[in-house]
Amino acid sequence: MSRRRPEDGLGKAGPCVMRHHPPRSKAEVWRTLRGGGGRGELAMSGLGRLFGKGKKEKGPTPEEAIQKLKETEKILIKKQEFLEQKIQQELQTAKKYGTKNKRAALQALRRKKRFEQQLAQTDGTLSTLEFQREAIENATTNAEVLRTMELAAQSMKKAYQDIFFRCLGHSREERCLL
Predict the structure, then answer these.
(1) Average pLDDT of 37-62?
(2) Where is this region: Disordered (predicted)?
(3) Pair 85, 32 in one domain
(4) What pTM, to 2 d.p., does this model score?
């Protein structure tokens, strides 16, 4: 028994059903398998935002972020100290075995080199964290300065309005004496 092909136009009955659309590209197939990119999803995301499902949680406050960065810096400083200690131990081990046991000395030097690489990576991470902490502190300070300047501007505006209203009752010839 031979199978029917959709091109034969033999109807929808049977093992092979005619498709209503051409075969999809690989990208479309993967998008559907992963559950994204369909028309319904786009429409639902718009409705979700309309009805409040698109809200995101607020991030941590600057003070919380600074505190977390300081805690992480402390951890990394402890790790640095530990790695420096291990480097010294491996160096002592390499010196100890020197010419007597060349293989053990080389292994100790390899471990020392690996610890030095970890130390360099930790140093880079620590400097990045310090930079981020300083940036957050500067941003917080700048925001406070801007709030103060805005308050001062509002106060000046109110003071000038008071002056203007006091002088409204005087004619041009009369001087407004404050």
Answers:
(1) 61
(2) 1-62
(3) no
(4) 0.55
